[in-house]
Structures are given as C-alpha cells and as structure tokens.
C-alpha cells in the first residue's frame, strides 16, 4: 500500500470465494502464526448476500465480531463495506440484493462501532458499466478497481497512523 514498512506491516489473507462461516476458523488458525495486529480489516460477506438470509448473516456477524474482539482484545476492528456488484450469483434481482447489501453494511457498521471499531465505506467504488472498476463479469474488481480499493485502505491506514502517532508519547 505504499506505506513505510518500518511503521506499518500489512498482512493480506484473501481467499477467493470465502464466506462468512469460514472467518473464525481462519482467524483461529492465523492467530498462531500472526503477531497481535493493531488493526484487523475485515472485507467479507458479499458471497453470503444472495445465499444467506440477511437476518442469519447479521446474527453470525454480531456473534463472530464479538468473538474476534475477545481473540484480539487490543486490536481495532475495521469493517470494509461489501462492495456493489452488477451481478449477484444465485439471484436474478441485482437491485434487490444491492438494497440488502446497503442495509447489511449499515447494520454491520453499527455492530463494529458498538465494539469500538470503525468502517471503510468505499463510496467511490460504483458498479456502473462505464466506470471501468469491474471486470466484465460484473462481480470482481478490475485492476483499476483494485487500485481504488487499495487506495481507500491506504487512506484509512495513513489517517489511523497519523492519529496513533499523535496519541503516543515520543520515545
């Protein structure tokens, strides 16, 4: 993300096709080899929207985010909003799923806020056909879209780093 490696180390653990139910087992496995992170950015849930009821998904999110808070007690939880898509697998009505996506993002933002965390919104990622941010399949980001996504994360982390350095005493 172009950040100073002496100050920030980013560990990516992306798994294509991952669903919410895979998150906690993955984090338990990584906890053994990872250092204790200062921030944990969770970008997940899009693959669950058209296969899981919003009520069930939100119940799982609330339960699992609370568990994550106890696994990483000194870590800032960051919710990275589920991105829009032109096409949602398993659903003929992309508009309906997008409405659910918006509601789910808002509710998860509230859950994470209650646990002392925050969110990255990605409001600059839209899925219109002329944005160039999505691949032809309408689901996955294009290289340009990935750049925008990464810049959003970089911007968030730079602001966090600046705040963190203001709040910590000079050594």
From TrEMBL:
<dbReference type="InterPro" id="IPR036514">
    <property type="entry name" value="SGNH_hydro_sf"/>
</dbReference>
<protein>
    <recommendedName>
        <fullName>SGNH hydrolase-type esterase domain-containing protein</fullName>
    </recommendedName>
</protein>
């Amino acid at each position: 993300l172009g950040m100073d490696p002496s100050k920030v180390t980013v560990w990516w653990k992306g798994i294509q096709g991952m669903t919410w139910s895979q998150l906690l087992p993955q984090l338990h496995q990584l906890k053994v080899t990872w250092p204790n992170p200062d921030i944990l950015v969770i970008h997940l849930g899009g693959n669950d929207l058209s296969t899981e009821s919003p009520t069930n998904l939100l119940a799982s999110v609330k339960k699992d985010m609370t568990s994550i808070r106890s696994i990483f007690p000194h870590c800032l939880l960051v919710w990275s909003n589920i991105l829009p898509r032109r096409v949602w697998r398993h659903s003929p009505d992309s508009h309906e799923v997008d409405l659910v996506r918006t509601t789910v993002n808002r509710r998860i933002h509230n859950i994470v806020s209650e646990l002392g965390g925050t969110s990255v919104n990605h409001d600059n990622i839209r899925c219109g056909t002329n944005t160039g941010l999505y691949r032809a399949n309408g689901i996955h980001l294009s290289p340009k879209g990935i750049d925008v996504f990464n810049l959003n994360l970089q911007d968030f982390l730079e602001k966090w780093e600046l705040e963190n350095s203001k709040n910590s005493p000079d050594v």
